[in-house]
Amino acid sequence: MQRKYSRMRETLFDLYTERDALPWYYRTIALVSSWLAAAGYIFFALTFTSSESNIKTTRTALTAVASVSLLVGYGVIAGVAFFSRSLLFVFDAVLLPILTSSFLGVFITVMNHVLHKDFPIPSQVYIYVPLVTACSTTIASAVLSYVAYRKIDKIKSLDRQRRQHVHRWERGSYVSYGDATSTTELSPMQPQLPEDEAQRRQLLRLLLTRESTESPGRSGAQNTYQITLPGEDLGHDGLPLASLGSRPRSGSFPNSSSKWNLVSRITRDRSPTVESFKNPRERRRDEIERASILLTPRTDSGWAQTPGASYQSPSSQTWGSSARYA
User: Fold this and answer.
1) What is the dihedral of CA 32, 38, 42, 47, to 10 degrees?
2) Where are the domains of the chain?
3) Which terminus in the chain has less CB density within 10 A, N or C?
4) In Å, how far are 91, 245, 255, 258, 325 from 272, measured between CA atoms?
5) Which 3 state secondary structure label does DSSP give 178?
6) Any residues with CB less than 8 A from the CB of 19 and at least 6 apart, and which?
7) How far apart are CA 278 and CA 221, in angstroms?
8) How far apart (Å, rounded) are the C-alpha atoms in residues 152 and 11?
9) Tens digits of per-residue pLDDT, 127-159?
10) Residue among 239, 244, 178 nearest 213 (CA)
11) 95 Cα distance to chain centroid
12) CB neighbours of 200 closer than 8 A, spacing ≥ 6?
């Protein structure tokens, strides 16, 4: 299991992934254990500075409470460090708090020994045991913290070197592949460029490459099919030319003397129409929009008749013919 985690510690992302994968109670237990170890040194200080008549409990019970606090604090935090398997968590939440608690134990023991002249204790063991324990745990936690810090710093430096020392592109060190239209070599993108700028340069390079190649002429397009209606004149490029008399104008109709053309000229709206220049889809969309705007509810049935409905009255037909050119 340890070998699996050591293989994962290759980048800074692996360190943070290991730490974030741990449950929340790991950090809580480690913090409470460090406080419990600091409380054990405080209990030991009360043991060798207080007289038997000044404390409500016995000196033996107070010594037992202090010893249990130290043992439980150091034991639980060591178990948390073993089961966490996270180097960054061990450094942040285990070694640094226990180093602080151990140094606090050394400070409490030394200060109480310096400030008091007489100690109401039968033996100096009550002083030497917490002092030796605090000194040894302080040294051990300091050494382990330094080792863990060196490992973390080494991983960070290697990750930083991998990110910075990227192999630069050289023309002779990579195999060149041309695009689909030419054999021009496309150089790779620079890693420092933003994504939008890289895409813009790539598209510009492709456009310039396409423009540099010879574009096919219009004469080649006429080798397939060409339909010429009677009366149409073709120019030099094969496009039909309209004469001056046959040029379409807005609002104009074909010259015809039939009665239907005469009726349509009288009844139609004089506003210029541009529907002849639109494709059928746009004309149909305009008709639907005009019908939806000008349509009003009927008084006899309560529902409006849309274009194409089965029931149409003469009045609705007259309105529809006039709304067509609205």
Assistant:
1) 90
2) 2-163, 256-298+320-326
3) N
4) 84, 19, 17, 22, 9
5) strand
6) 86, 88, 89, 92
7) 26
8) 10
9) 889 999 999 999 999 999 999 999 999 888 888
10) 178
11) 34
12) none
What is the identity of the amino acid at 294?
A: L
Distance CA 55, CA 29 (A): 31
- HSE of 262, CA atoms in CB hemisphere, 13 A: 3
Radius of gyration over alpha carbons of the chain, in Å?
Answer: 47
Chain segment 38-95, per-residue pLDDT in tens: 999 999 988 888 877 788 888 888 999 999 999 999 999 999 999 988 899 999 999 9
0.85 surpassed by pTM? no
Q: What is the pLDDT of residues 10-52, one digit of tens each?
A: 777 888 888 888 999 999 999 999 999 999 999 998 888 887 7
d(CA 155, CA 13): 10
- Residue written as token pair 């745990």: 137
* CA distances in angstroms from 159 to 3, 166, 185, listed in the order given: 20, 12, 32
Helices (H) and strands (E) in the chain, counts: 11, 2
Strand partners for 240: 234
The residue among 127, 130, 102 whose CA lies nearest residue 48 is 127
- Dig out the tokens for 25 from the structure: 């109670």
**Arithmetic mean of pLDDT over the chain:** 72
Determine the Cα–Cα distance for residues 34 and 38; give it in Å rounded to an integer: 6
Packing angle of the helix pair 125-164, 96-115 (nearest 10 deg): 150
Six-digit token string for 229? 């209606």
Q: Judge whether 43 and 62 are in contact, CB under 8 Å.
A: yes
